[in-house]
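Human:
Class, as today's exercise, you are to examine the entry below, and be ready to discuss the fold:
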Amino acid sequence: MNLCLDVGNSQIYGGLFDGKKLLFSFRRITERIASSDELGLFFRNVIKENSFDPASVTSIGYCSVVPDINHSLRNACLHYFDTEPFCLKAGVKTGLKISYKNQAEVGADRIADAIGAVDRYPGKNLIIIDFGTATTVEAVTANHEYLGGAIAPGLRTSMSSLEKATARLPKVEILRPEKACGRSTTESIQSGLYWGHLGMIKELIRHYRKECFPEGQDATVVATGGFAGLYADTGIFDAIHPELVIEGIRIAQDMNQGG
């Protein structure tokens, strides 16, 4: 079995695969000072709690945007699973043509999303939206060319910034408000977060359709990430795939390790 891990700024999102089948997934708060023992024991315990044997894990793949945790994560894999983990990073096989000016700048999670989306929608132009700590919007052509994208503060990041930068604005629950015009401070913040984010995404999709793909060609819009479901009924996505990033890690691992 294969354990795949997406190490994000806010959470570690993981999943256990048997071949191409995702058996279960989980999330853990990212702690930059976590020890290898903390990580290793957590991974073993979450596998046991889902009724699988940690000893059945024969390979591990990960991508990370948190360099501080990578040393502990690698040691956890070595000591608790007796396996050298595969790291999705610049220079490995991805099946994509990266058209970024500096390929090393592209976040590994963004590449994993693109790999997963291309596998699900071969031969399609793609716009991929990931609702994480940052909200990212990527463009990939039908011939697997990764054109680039946009990075904006995510919903939770935006809310935290408001709270820290103002004297009287509180944290609020992130949800879809009934009306755009809030009648309280809480409703007003929720409106700004939800509808402001939706407007940004719609505008980026509109620009991508004109800028990134040949005239007359459409693009499939795919969403992933923790807050994707919040916008499920808006009609802006063709599909939502919460597991896209760990699927991309698994596919990249197969490409590079002969799976």
In short: Helices lie at 36-49, 67-81, 108-120, 155-165, 185-211, 244-257. The chain has a mean pLDDT of 94. The chain has six helices and eleven strands.
